[in-house]
Amino acid sequence: MTDSDVEREPDPQAETPIPADDAAHLLIVDDDRRIRVLLQRYLSQEGYRVTLAGNAEEATAALKNFSFDLLVLDVMMPGESGLDFAARLRTDHSDRGRVPILMLTAKAETGDRIAGFETGVDDFLAKPFEPRELLLRIASILRRAQPPAPPTQITHVHFGGFVFDLHRGDLRRGEEIVRLTERERDMLRLLAARPGETVSREMLAGPGVAGNERTVDVQVNRLRHKIERDPANPLHLQTVRGAGYRLLIDR
Fold first, then answer.
1. Using CA atoms, how far apart are residues 189 and 157, in angstroms rounded to an integer?
2. Residue 238 belongs to what domain range?
């Protein structure tokens, strides 16, 4: 949010809508009360459930009592910093340690972002920020964090002389095994689990840094060279312009 947004104190009499019980639950961790309350009001209006914490200690207590879908975490806080808190959280082997983190920071140096990503932060947003960008980043992280599981009823798919085993991750052409990288195998499994349906680039990118989506096109192109007769004019692994990719299988 911009400085002018922060300077305006929220109206305590204004009504805040009640989010649905199944709405995503966000934990906002920031030592600035004005920012916390503004974010709570704004995100609640957008349909999210929101809990507030003023420091790492309060956030730790909240995580013991509630399950969260995402942490919006400030870097600069008194006591334990946001980066230190994120690093400590990632050492927790329970579900708490896997909750996605969007880091808010006034710092824009590459070194700070790299340090955050190395601790397991999923994305960064520099202050001041536009509320719409915050919403888009939150939605993007939540989509990547919860990819739909492949339907269990589909075990094998056939296309262009190839057979792909979704459970084993094996791709065969006749008796020959086609070697796949782990990323190619994961992407093909997602596509094969939904034959004919569009799978977004965000889902194909998998969890982690938003910049990973930029490598999807490169990885798809490499996969096409393994399964298409003419990779420049693919028959099976097709592009859905502006949306993602789909795998067409033999009927």
1. 10
2. 156-247
